[in-house]
Design a protein that fits this description.
This protein has 274 residues and is an alpha/beta fold. The protein contains nine helices and ten strands. Helix 4 packs across helix 5. It holds the Pfam family Abhydrolase_6.
Length: 274
């Protein structure tokens, strides 16, 4: 794990793997760079750079939770690229990471070679958002990794044929086991940031998607996703008939990215931005 300092003084963690076309890997809302651990061993033609957002995993927590925003996290991503001396990169964005990618496409288009979105689009379904708020910022009731790994197949709907060792890895990626039970691997004030945002009017994110007009894009949707609907995918395809697309079978929000169909799309995306 490596670190750099942001312009406002926080220490941000990141990892690098491989060589080739540079790709910035941006994780989900409560998650971290381990989102890409399953994919990484299968990719041999790219330089993968995965960061922990501020307030997640090994990065510093922000004393001002209002900085847990897409705008600030996007700025951190650009500062990481500057730190590495990289001007333009491809982005693989899982959930929130895809939203950040669309935001960067609108704000600094020259710095993006293209965007692959993992189970995210310009419209977020209420059921999926409600599911996220159900656990956001709250410690799980489980006391041990083993207890959590045994329960996840039952309480995690939409995932089929997931081997036990994957659930064991997932609980370790999500939580930290201590003497008094499992703890979050992110700042629980992330919930305050989301609740404090103005939700009175849902933002129109289609202009951000449309900002990708002249760049290669790809989309992986979990077959059973409750956050990204097929109707939204249809509209995305209508606007971008050239979008590389697949549904990951037996997956919900979010695919692990090592599914054969997901890897096929990832490799096509890498070729398109190389």
């Amino acid at each position: 794990m490596k670190f750099f300092k942001t312009s406002d003084g926080l220490k941000i963690a990141y990892r690098e793997h491989g060589s080739g076309v540079p790709i910035l890997c941006l994780s989900g809302l409560t998650r971290n760079s381990t989102d890409f651990d399953y994919m990484t061993p299968h990719i041999n033609n790219a330089r993968l750079i995965a960061m922990d957002y501020r307030g997640r995993e090994q990065s510093d927590f922000d004393p001002n939770f209002e900085n847990y925003s897409i705008e600030r996290e996007g700025k951190d991503a650009l500062e990481l690229l500057d730190h590495l001396g990289l001007y333009d990169v491809g982005i693989i964005g899982t959930s929130r990471g895809g939203l950040i990618g669309m935001g960067l496409a609108a704000a600094v288009p020259a710095r993006l070679r293209g965007l692959l979105m993992n189970d995210i689009g310009p419209v977020l379904e209420p059921d999926g958002l409600s599911a996220i708020m159900g656990f956001l910022g709250r410690r799980p009731k489980f006391k041990t990794y083993d207890e959590a790994a045994a329960a996840l197949p039952t309480i995690t709907t939409g995932f089929v044929d997931v081997p036990p060792d994957r659930w064991q890895q997932e609980v370790r990626n999500r939580w930290e086991e201590r003497a008094d039970g499992l703890h979050l691997r992110y700042d629980p004030k992330l919930r305050d940031a989301i609740e404090g945002a103005d939700h009175s009017v849902a933002p129109d994110m289609w202009p951000f998607f449309d900002a990708l007009t002249d760049k290669p894009i790809a989309l992986i949707r979990g077959e059973n996703s409750d956050l990204l609907s097929r109707d939204t995918v249809t509209e995305m395809q209508k606007r971008r008939p050239d979008m590389i697309y697949v549904e990951a079978k037996n997956r919900a929000h979010i695919p692990y990215l090592d599914e054969p169909e997901s890897l096929d799309v990832i490799n096509k995306f890498i070729k398109a931005i190389s």
